[in-house]
Design a protein that fits this description.
- Helix 4 packs across helix 7 (160-174) and helix 5 crosses helix 8 (197-210).
- The two termini are 28 Å apart.
- 42% of the residues are buried.
- The longest helix has 18 residues, at 23-40.
- This protein is globular.
- It is built from 10 helices and 6 strands; from the N terminus they run αβαβαααβααββαααβ.
- Helices cover 46% and strands 14% of the residues.
- The protein has helices at residues 3-10, 23-40, 51-63, 69-79, 85-96, 145-148, 160-174, 197-210, 213-219, 222-229, and strands spanning 14-17, 43-48, 132-137, 176-181, 185-190, 234-238.
């Protein structure tokens, strides 16, 4: 049975399998679906249905002794309401960071970054991945999609309920919505990107608290992360 058929056994949502040639095609597809979702009351999200993500769904159901994935979803959506996102991020900052910015003469890139590449959907050679679907989740709060397709809880990745709480905080502040979910990555589309370097620096610290690997294995420094966030409509997280 294909991974997409396995997904259909778990979730009764409208979706379509996606094939694309380049980033621009994906950008057009997502933004059109996001606009439609605002009008019709659903949230679109790309899923990369590899074996690991599907296994995570199955393991979660085993742990909770249920054969209905919506029981897991319901639990995630209840738990996040008791999590204070600011306190959660501050606790991670206090425990794991000291001096954030050390390159005093760093020159920030002042250009606006208005391309939505969603590179997680492509492999390292630029080829579109297999088993990609665009799901129309029947919810109006975009951040809650992270509770429907729960990844995390490993490799220092926050649990789904923690992810939702933080995503809600960022949605209210920046209009950030989860656009792609894989077993170890989340990409956000950002409607209101940060417009000052100082705010980009503060946001970089929050991103590090949420995902240490974004500095440790991706950008390398807080300065480069803040530079990547400044005026950028796309955020990327990866837990290795």
């Amino acid at each position: 049975m294909s991974n997409i058929e396995e997904f259909k056994k778990l979730y009764n949502f409208e979706f379509e399998e996606i094939k694309a040639k380049d980033y621009k095609e994906i950008e057009r597809k997502y933004l059109a679906s996001y606009k439609e979702g605002k009008e019709k009351g659903f949230t679109p999200v790309f899923l990369v249905l590899d074996d690991v993500l599907l296994e995570k769904f199955e393991l979660d159901m085993e742990d909770e002794n249920t054969d209905n994935i919506m029981d897991i979803v319901k639990s995630n959506l209840e738990k996040y309401k008791n999590i204070n996102a600011v306190e959660f991020l501050k606790k991670s900052q206090d425990e794991n960071t000291e001096d954030y910015f050390t390159e005093k003469d760093y020159k920030f890139d002042n250009k606006e970054k208005y391309n939505l590449e969603l590179s997680t959907l492509f492999d390292y050679e630029g080829n579109f991945k297999d088993n990609v679907i665009l799901v129309k989740v029947p919810i109006k709060n975009p951040y809650e999609v992270l509770g429907y397709f729960g990844m995390g809880g490993y490799n220092d990745c926050p649990l789904p309920a923690e992810q939702i709480a933080v995503a809600k905080y960022w949605y209210e502040k920046y209009g950030a919505v989860p656009a792609v979910i894989t077993y170890d990555e989340i990409e956000f589309y950002v409607e209101k990107p940060v417009q000052t370097f100082e705010e980009a620096k503060k946001l970089a610290v929050e991103h590090y608290a949420f995902c240490y690997d974004i500095v440790d294995q991706c950008y390398g420094t807080f300065e480069k992360l803040a530079d990547g966030l400044y005026k950028n409509i796309q955020w990327y997280f990866w837990w290795d």
